[in-house]
């Protein structure tokens, strides 16, 4: 499947969750076997042999992260919203395109010096991913890259992630 075809599975929902935001709904993409396989294949194959674990960001990052890890024969770990993880955690605060929030990770999520691929559905301002990067580094991990299905290029989130390699499948340059 081409990237142009893949893009037809992303549905725009205007003014959700608040006026002025165009929400990129990936449920049609995830609901299609061929489209989901295309996403998992393209992200997984890019990082084959160069990572030790996959870190999924709650909650849509879990949908992509687990099958990517499985494809590579690796395990997966998670960053979650506050109060969800039962063990000993580290926290980082961040700003969203619409609001502020906090992410937490288990302190024993991965071994020191692990090469970690951070995965989420969408890169907007980069606040969420930069909090995940901070958590990986505070735990002694190495961020091997950040992979997304969608990148809203006009929000320049990539710049906020510094020298971390950013890989996205579908770019949107207009608002
Ligand atoms: P940001 O921290 O600004 O890069 O926002 C990325 C996070 O917010 C991701 O977890 C996305 O799922 C979600 N998000 C932000 N903007 C949108 C949007 N326009 N459509 C869908 N999800 C979004």
Name a few traits of the molecule.
175 residues, alpha/beta, Rossmann fold, seven-stranded mixed β-sheet, two-stranded antiparallel sheet, 6 helices, globular, binds adenosine monophosphate
Task: Give an overview of the whole structure.
With 175 residues, this protein is of the alpha/beta class. It has one domain (39-172): Rossmann fold (3-Layer(aba) Sandwich). 30% of the residues lie in helices and 35% in strands. It has six helices and nine strands, in the order αββααβαββββαβαβ. The strands form two sheets. Strands 5-6-4-3-7-8-9 form a seven-stranded mixed sheet, with helices on both faces. Strands 1-2 form a two-stranded antiparallel ribbon. A hairpin with a 7-residue loop joins strand 1 (11-14) and strand 2. The longest helix has 15 residues, at 33-47. The two termini are 26 Å apart. The model has no long low-confidence stretch (mean pLDDT 96).
Provide the fold topology:
Elements: H1 3-7, E1 11-14, E2 22-25, H2 27-30, H3 33-47, E3 53-57, H4 60-71, E4 76-80, E5 89-96, E6 99-106, E7 115-123, H5 127-138, E8 142-152, H6 157-160, E9 166-172
Helix pairs in contact: 3-4
The structure holds adenosine monophosphate.
Residues 21-24, 57, 60, 96-97, 120-129, 157 line the site of adenosine monophosphate (AMP).
Brief characterization of the structure:
The strands form 2 sheets. Strands 5-6-4-3-7-8-9 form a 7-stranded mixed sheet, sandwiched between helices. It has a two-stranded antiparallel ribbon with strand order 1-2.
Counting helices, strands and paired strands, the structural category is alpha/beta
User: Roughly what is the average pLDDT, rounded to an integer?
Assistant: 96
- Highest CATH level, the class: Alpha Beta
User: What's the number of structural domains?
Assistant: 1
**What is the 3D form?**
globular
Order of helices and strands: HEEHHEHEEEEHEHE
